[in-house]
Amino acid sequence: WAIHFSSVFEYLFAMGMVWQMAALSGNERWKGLTWGMLPLHASGVAACTYHFFYNSPDLSFLVLLQAALTLAGNTTCAVA
Q: What total number of domains does the chain contain?
């Protein structure tokens, strides 16, 4: 669980660093990348939630949700 938790936390830290880059550089467009990273973070949270409940069949929809959020996040990061 340490790896799962640290990965999700690390991604939040990276998003914060990108947001700070906008302030430090004076280029507010960096904030768009932070918003683009949000679906990828949500994808990680969905995966951790699914695994936390021992891959319960009742939560199998989280697998599809994770896939959709990963696709959306990859697309938004590419556009940003």
A: 1
Decide: 79 and 36 in contact? Cβ < 8 Å. yes
Question: pTM to 2 decimals?
Answer: 0.91
Whether residue 74 contacts residue 40, with contact meaning beta carbons closer than 8 Å, is answered with: yes
What the block records as the tokens of 17 is 């660093």
Alpha carbons 7 and 47: distance in angstroms, whole number? 11
Map tokens 């004076």 to a residue.
26
3-class SS shares of the chain: helix, strand, coil, % to 5: 85, 0, 15
Task: Report which of residues 45 and 1 the model is more confident about.
Answer: 45
Q: Which domain holds residue 63?
A: 2-79
Task: Evaluate whether 66 touches 43 at the Cβ level (below 8 Å).
Answer: yes
What is residue 51's predicted lDDT score, i.e. its pLDDT? 94
